[in-house]
């Protein structure tokens, strides 16, 4: 089984964003919680870009 390029960063970003959201809900340090959410969201966006680009390259072949 092959994992598509971009799937791991997208999944990791989803998990990290969830952890950051839990930190916000638990009223932990707001700056750190916002940073964790942003870090996770960035991974989701970059992973999604990789998934889309990888799909485009396979269509051309």
From TrEMBL:
Keyword field: Membrane, Transmembrane, Transmembrane helix
TM ranges: 31-52
Protein name: Asparagine synthase
Origin species: Clostridium diolis
Species classification: Bacteria, Bacillati, Bacillota, Clostridia, Eubacteriales
